[in-house]
Amino acid sequence: MSTAPKPRHIGRNISRIRELRDMKQEALAIAIGTTQQSISIIEGSESVDDEKLSRIAEALGVPADVIRNFSEEAVFNIIGNSYDNGSSSINHNNCTFNPLDKLLEAFEENKKLYQQLIQAEKEKVALLEKMLDKI
Known about the structure:
Layout: H1 10-20, H2 25-32, H3 36-44, H4 50-60, H5 64-68, H6 72-82, H7 99-134
Helix pairs in contact: 1-3, 2-3
C-alpha cells in the first residue's frame, strides 16, 4: 500500500473553478483565445503547461497556484474577495497605493505651487516698483 500523495488533476481543478465562477467552457475559450473543444481537452488532462495555466488562471481571475493547489475554501475566499457586482464605483481590491499618501502628496504639491505663485507675484511687484521709480 502506497502512502505517496496522489497527484492533483489540474484539468479537474480548472473545471471546478470555472464552474464556481459560473463560466461556460466557451467563455473561457474565448477569454484565452482557443476553442471550446480545447478547453474540454484541457479539463480532461491531468497536467497543463505553465503558459496555458497562467492564461487560464488570469481568465478565471485566480492565481495559477490556486489552480495547482486547489481547495474549495481557497477558491471561495479569492472569489469572495475579488467579486465585483458593479454596485460600487470603487474597487477596493485593486488599490496598489495608500490613498492617504496620495492625498498628502497632492497637498504638498499644491503647497509648492502656491509658494511658486507667491514668489512670481513678489517678482512682479518688484519689477513694477522698479519701473515706477524710473518714471
